[in-house]
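pasting input
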Amino acid sequence: MPKPTQNTQSEAPEAVPTSLSHSAGFLLNRSARIIRERVEEALHPLGLSAQAYGLMRLIEAGGPTTQQSLCARNKIDRTTMVQLLDQLEERQLVLRQPSSTDRRANLIFLTPRGRKTLSRATRLVKKEQEKFLAPLAPEEWESLRQQLIKLLEHNFDRQP
Amino acid sequence: MPKPTQNTQSEAPEAVPTSLSHSAGFLLNRSARIIRERVEEALHPLGLSAQAYGLMRLIEAGGPTTQQSLCARNKIDRTTMVQLLDQLEERQLVLRQPSSTDRRANLIFLTPRGRKTLSRATRLVKKEQEKFLAPLAPEEWESLRQQLIKLLEHNFDRQP
DNA sequence: TATTGTTATACTCTATAACTATA
DNA sequence: TATAGTTATAGAGTATAACAATA
């Protein structure tokens, strides 16, 4: 993620303009952007993007899975998946292994090195998350979490 | 926002993988993405991106302001702002007017046509937001909202 | 005939660097 | 000398289309 050109801020802008304080889109997108940027920054020394990190978490979670399955779970295109995995495989963080039951498909594994890198990354990301969530009491974060999960479960697969 | 290539989903993927259900980054980014995509879709007939819509909301909210001020409030680059405004001005939705007190600066206005388009857009976006928030009781949305605002106010201007 | 993965390519978004004009 | 806005350009990210191998 690139850094902004020198933007001179004559006045300190407010985090939540009143007129947008009831917009779910604004609040969610702005919060998401901040945590994503922090995570990108934290992972930079490991050479991982937030996207790549998320993908590795999914691979870790689901055990060996096909590229297609990762696409579906991550809602990204097949061709994007190829490129993401190319980068991870080149750095020997993941491994493609042709499935024995369907030889068109690749099973994706984390390598030992991948697992090591991922656990380091996870520690860094957790630290960022703690800083980000600092203003919330534990019950508040828990309730925020539950509400986001409810939103996702209701909206993830809905058709327009 | 482009549409995904035919991704065959053999199994319906879950909205929130257990291993990521405690990740603020995952939950926020996935929720933000969904609402953003819905908004993009809803605004497509008006030829507005979610980004452009958000910008017009900011212009509406703050009254005539300079491009720099819009950049700071929206956390985007000066050059990106130029391009966004170029598109809006070409469609006669906004107007640049050199400031009389600082002739380097442009004051940005919504045109009557811009206000009309914006109010139509806002109606469409509100409808999407209602659908998106449907699974939450009003108190739940209110608490989610307050928590997001708390996060933003604490994190918006923090230095790394 | 459909599907998995791949390649080549194009598009969108956003930023960096260099410029003009004002301050 | 610094700032507001602009231009030209480049990079990251992600998609579409066409293709090979397999089902």
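fyi The mean pLDDT of chain B is 91.
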